[in-house]
Amino acid sequence: MPFVEYETIGDIAVLTLNRPEKRNAMCDTMLADLGAAVDRAADEAKAAVLRAEGKHFCAGLDLAEHAEKSLMDGVSGSRKWHAVFSRIQRGTVPYFVALSGAVIGGGLELASVGHVRVAAPDTYFALPEGQRGIFLGGGGSVNVTRLMGVPRVMDMMLTGRVLSVEEAERFGIVNYLAAPGKAFDKAMELARVAAGNAPLSNYLIINALQRIHDSGYDEGLFFESVAASLTQETPEARERLRAFLEKKSAPISAPNGREIRE
Fold first, then answer.
1. Is 129 noted as a catalytic residue in this protein?
2. Which of 70, 66, 82 is nearest to 137 (CA)?
3. DSSP characters for 153-177?
4. E-strand spans in the chain?
5. Is-contact 113 88, C-beta < 8 A?
6. Residues 53, 5: contact at Cβ < 8 Å?
7. Which of 168, 154, 64, 62 is nearest to 120 (CA)?
8. Which residue, among 161, 162, 156, 191, has the nearest Cα to 176 in the 3D structure?
9. Where are the domains of the chain?
């Protein structure tokens, strides 16, 4: 896979966008490589970290390649983005995204389907589709708007507004601010915590929460009850709950190093 490197570190799959000379702009080959890496991570890992080689996470769609496509090619290409991104967002393992430099257009669409985003101080965010005469095609009109709301996305697309990492945190795009050069380390720290969770709990967290949020009130509560009962009936949950009741379980370790004792 020339444009996406893949490795495992313990139970963590590390996927690295590797097209730094193009600021990791997404071409068709890179998207196919990402899809193959995502499928491999689903089989091999308990959590995943997505990062990029070079100074920039992803400058979005490779416009040089896109400009040569027909109308139907454009529709097909957009749906391919949706298919790969859905396997990240609604897959079997949680994704922690390490961000730095440019997170622009399709790069922000990609970041938005991760479950937790960690950003270095030099990270900046933009949706310049309005200035390019195009529209979001990688799911951003659904996923980025869920993070920060339609009015803010509309502002960025209409005016070309560029968000600093601090603004992105306030707007809900970024979950954690990392020290310079430490976004990947922080993402790995968080991924290791999540990898220690029960697999079914992680699966329901990344697959049920958004669906519950998008459903009606009564339907959401019903779905929650079913999900809660499912997790409680697994052998792993029974073992963990028994250890807690017998005070044999280890304290909960928070990412900041603090231990939580109940």
1. yes
2. 82
3. HHHHHHH--EEEHHHHHHTTS-SEE
4. 4-9, 12-17, 47-52, 95-99, 102-104, 116-119, 124-126, 162-164, 176-177, 252-253, 259-260
5. yes
6. yes
7. 168
8. 191
9. 4-195, 199-260
Of 8-12, 53-57, 69-73, 153-157, give the lowest mean pLDDT range.
Answer: 69-73
Which CATH topology does 199-260 take?
Lyase 2-enoyl-coa Hydratase; Chain  A, domain 2 (1.10.12)
Distance of alpha carbon 195 from alpha carbon 46, whole angstroms: 5
Q: Would the pTM of this model clear 0.85, i.e. be above it?
A: yes
Of 5, 109, 166, 224, which one is the catalytic site residue? 109
From 129, 219, 233, 246, active-site residue: 129
User: What letter would DSSP give residue 250?
Assistant: P
Say how many residues make up the chain.
262
User: What pLDDT is recorded for position 262?
Assistant: 46
pLDDT value at position 215?
A: 96
